Amino acid sequence: MPENPAWVPQEEHHIEGICVTDIGTEFFNQVKESYKMNKNFHILCQLLIKDCKDPSLSSKLDEAWKKAYDEGKFHLLDGILYHRTKHTCVMALTDIALIKTILS
Known about the structure:
The protein is 40% helix and 12% strand. The protein is an alpha+beta fold. The chain has one domain (24-103). The chain is globular.
C-alpha cells in the first residue's frame, strides 16, 4: 500500500471522473422517474424530502442502503439524488440506459 493517505485500490474506482455538460431537462426528468422504479432510491428520495428523519420509512431500506443513509452519505438537490464519499459527491443513477447515455 502506498504511503499516500488518499490512496484507494484501483478495483474500487474504475472510473475516476466524468464531466458532462449540456445535459437537457429531459435527461434529469428521466433520472427522477427512474428513482420510482427502484425501492431504495425511491425511499431515499422520500426520506430526504422530509425535514426530519423517519425511522419507520428508513427501516424499509436494504441494510447497506440504510447504513449509508444513517451515515449521511446521500443528499437530494432539485430532485436528484447524490452519493457522498470522503472527497467526492456524485449523481446517483439507477437506470442502466441512463448510465450508458453518460458513458457514451
